[in-house]
Structure formats: structure tokens, C-alpha cells
Amino acid sequence: MNEPERSNQSPNPAPRILIAGGGTGGHAIPALCVASSLRSMNANVEFVGSVSGIESTLVPKADFPLHALPLTGLAGNPIARARAATLFLKAIRSCKRIIQRFGPGAVLGVGGYASAPAVVAARTLGVPTLLHEQNSVPGRVNRLAGRLTRETLVTFPAALEHLPGAVRVGMPTRPEFFGVSREKALEDLGLEPPVVVVFGGSGGALKLNLAAAGAFAGTTPYTVVQVSGRRDFARLSTQNPRHRILEYVDDIWRYLAAADLVVSRAGAGSLFDIAAVGRAAILVPFPFATGGHQLHNARYFTERGAAELMMDDEVTVESLRRRVERLLDDDEGREELEGRMAALATPDASDGVARRLLAVAGEEKN
């Protein structure tokens, strides 16, 4: 009796998902969180990004394939805008080829230069797309791209007002932020409490960095860890042995976990990282963020009693040190902020976005 012929293909091939976007950590890191969840659900994931974005380093480091495209923003003089438009059209053609070769069941746009051309390419090829908006106020590109997507997912409730039909899922956050205690972090980092952590996100924050360098350069009865970002690091110095100025850290979750107080800009990723470890914070929104989204991001937390707000024009060497020391002296107030901050974390967001992508990919397959 002849045996049935065996197929070389698996009867249930792994679903394929393409993630597009990046530029900054605020886009790339949530995308990688979703990618990790997808990988744990046995999906194959590839990325489309920009050659100049932070994803060009982070994505290969996380062992995901990256298709890096030459892209720039649409701002600038007419010549620069014309060049950006040309690159955008070329990127759409490149994304079409990538999608045809890889054959994803769904595409996720996360914002950044590479997100829009991938969404457009997927739409023209009939591949369903989802969009994740990290901020309270969506940028122009995401508002336009949202019209082409099957579903738009948002982090903040306020974004629902700008993106009709969107669904709130929260912010995909690295699991490391949820699993480290203050005591273990202090031991691992060799820090003496109390600890203040100052950071401005992946791009740094010059005004905040300069104010912090001046505020804590003299003797302090507490430890200050200032993560400056690569751009500002060379401009900063301190004479205080309890003031560490670091260019960049891969394990920011340890420093946040070790902190008694955090001073931070108000990028969405940074805010939800602080919420994941449940730490008291003074939020200093970047005043020139598109659509004022950092102020709106911060107010989501401050209006719920989870953090304190300090406007950028209020920040001086003297005022920053005064605000920090007032909160360090208020143990009860800090504990209240910590509890409310932790309650706003969204630990299931990565898995939630991943499941939605797989559901859409499954619908198309059937």
C-alpha cells in the first residue's frame, strides 16, 4: 500500500506580521514590545524602518529582521521637502516589494517616517493594517494613515477624540519594568538611597539636563542619577560625588526601580515606564512637542494625582532643586503618588496588540 504523499509545507504555517515605523525610542520600543509578544505566540515578525532611526540599532539587537529605508521628514525648505517626497514615493514601492516577498497577514504602523509608506503599500495590496498611536494628540501623519487602517489602537483616552472609532489598548511596555524591586535595583547598581533619577527620554532634553547639572553639582544628601542622552552628554559635568551623569543606559528599568523620585520629560513611553515601576515623578513636558502632546500626556497622570507637573519655563537650577527636595521630604506624599502612578500602568498592552494583529491576519487567511 502506497503511503500518502507528504507536503513540505506545514499545515499551519506561522502567521507573519510586518511592523513599520520608528525614528525615536517612543515609537521603536513599543513596537519591539509587540514584536516580542508576537514571537511568544509563534508568529514571524519583520520590521520596516528608517536607516537613520533608532530602530536601525534596536531591531537587529532584538534579533528581528529589519528593512531599513532612506527616509526624512517633510519639514524644511522646498528642496528638502521635494527630496523627502521623492524618498517617500520610493519607500512605498520598496514596501510593496517587501510585503509581496514576506507575505504578512497584517501590518502594524507605529508612527515615524517608515510607518506611512508601509501603510499605503499594504492598503494598495489589500493587506489589512493596524495603527498604534502612542501620544494623547496624534500627529498629522497618523491622523491621515488612520483613515487607511482596519483599526487604530491608542494609548491615552484623549486620543479617542482625534481618531474616531479607535480602541484604547494602552502602552506596550517592556516586561523588565514590572519585575524588579527597589531593594534589588539599589543592590545591583550600587546606589545609596534616597535616589533621584533625571532623564529626558531617548533623545535627551537640553534645558532639563543643564538645570539638573547645575542644581545637583554641589553637595547633596541624596544620590542623583542623570541619564542625559548622547546629544547633551559632553556639555555636562558635576563636582558632586553623589551625582552620576550617564550618557545612556540599556537597563533604565533598574534605575527607575531604584528611584525614590523621577524627574522626566513627558514622552508617552517614559511615562508608562515610570508607571510600570510605580515611582513618584515630576513631569516637565517638552513645550515644542507636536500639538503640545507632551503636556496632554503629562496631564493624564497629573490630573489623576499620579505625578506633579512642572512647566518648562518654570525650570531653573534653583526651582528644580527646591521641588525635588520638597518631595523627598514628603514620604507620605510620595507614597500616594507611587500608588496612583502604578495603577495607571498597562502591563497587558503588548499582548493585546499582538492578539489583535493575529486575529486580523487569521481573518484574511480564512
Automatic annotation (TrEMBL):
<comment type="function">
    <text>Cell wall formation. Catalyzes the transfer of a GlcNAc subunit on undecaprenyl-pyrophosphoryl-MurNAc-pentapeptide (lipid intermediate I) to form undecaprenyl-pyrophosphoryl-MurNAc-(pentapeptide)GlcNAc (lipid intermediate II).</text>
</comment>
<dbReference type="Pfam" id="PF04101">
    <property type="entry name" value="Glyco_tran_28_C"/>
</dbReference>
<feature type="domain" description="Glycosyltransferase family 28 N-terminal">
    <location>
        <begin position="17"/>
        <end position="149"/>
    </location>
</feature>
<dbReference type="GO" id="GO:0009252">
    <property type="term" value="P:peptidoglycan biosynthetic process"/>
</dbReference>
<feature type="binding site">
    <location>
        <position position="294"/>
    </location>
    <ligand>
        <name>UDP-N-acetyl-alpha-D-glucosamine</name>
    </ligand>
</feature>
<dbReference type="GO" id="GO:0050511">
    <property type="term" value="F:undecaprenyldiphospho-muramoylpentapeptide beta-N-acetylglucosaminyltransferase activity"/>
</dbReference>
<feature type="binding site">
    <location>
        <position position="174"/>
    </location>
    <ligand>
        <name>UDP-N-acetyl-alpha-D-glucosamine</name>
    </ligand>
</feature>
<dbReference type="Pfam" id="PF03033">
    <property type="entry name" value="Glyco_transf_28"/>
</dbReference>
<keyword id="KW-0573">Peptidoglycan synthesis</keyword>
<protein>
    <recommendedName>
        <fullName>UDP-N-acetylglucosamine--N-acetylmuramyl-(pentapeptide) pyrophosphoryl-undecaprenol N-acetylglucosamine transferase</fullName>
        <ecNumber>2.4.1.227</ecNumber>
    </recommendedName>
</protein>
<dbReference type="GO" id="GO:0008360">
    <property type="term" value="P:regulation of cell shape"/>
</dbReference>
<feature type="binding site">
    <location>
        <position position="202"/>
    </location>
    <ligand>
        <name>UDP-N-acetyl-alpha-D-glucosamine</name>
    </ligand>
</feature>
<comment type="similarity">
    <text>Belongs to the glycosyltransferase 28 family. MurG subfamily.</text>
</comment>
<dbReference type="GO" id="GO:0071555">
    <property type="term" value="P:cell wall organization"/>
</dbReference>
<dbReference type="InterPro" id="IPR006009">
    <property type="entry name" value="GlcNAc_MurG"/>
</dbReference>
<feature type="binding site">
    <location>
        <begin position="24"/>
        <end position="26"/>
    </location>
    <ligand>
        <name>UDP-N-acetyl-alpha-D-glucosamine</name>
    </ligand>
</feature>
<comment type="pathway">
    <text>Cell wall biogenesis; peptidoglycan biosynthesis.</text>
</comment>
<dbReference type="GO" id="GO:0005975">
    <property type="term" value="P:carbohydrate metabolic process"/>
</dbReference>
<keyword id="KW-0133">Cell shape</keyword>
<keyword id="KW-0961">Cell wall biogenesis/degradation</keyword>
<keyword id="KW-0328">Glycosyltransferase</keyword>
<keyword id="KW-0808">Transferase</keyword>
<keyword id="KW-0131">Cell cycle</keyword>
<keyword id="KW-0472">Membrane</keyword>
<dbReference type="InterPro" id="IPR007235">
    <property type="entry name" value="Glyco_trans_28_C"/>
</dbReference>
<feature type="domain" description="Glycosyl transferase family 28 C-terminal">
    <location>
        <begin position="195"/>
        <end position="336"/>
    </location>
</feature>
<feature type="binding site">
    <location>
        <position position="135"/>
    </location>
    <ligand>
        <name>UDP-N-acetyl-alpha-D-glucosamine</name>
    </ligand>
</feature>
<dbReference type="GO" id="GO:0051301">
    <property type="term" value="P:cell division"/>
</dbReference>
<dbReference type="GO" id="GO:0005886">
    <property type="term" value="C:plasma membrane"/>
</dbReference>
<keyword id="KW-0132">Cell division</keyword>
<keyword id="KW-1003">Cell membrane</keyword>
<dbReference type="InterPro" id="IPR004276">
    <property type="entry name" value="GlycoTrans_28_N"/>
</dbReference>
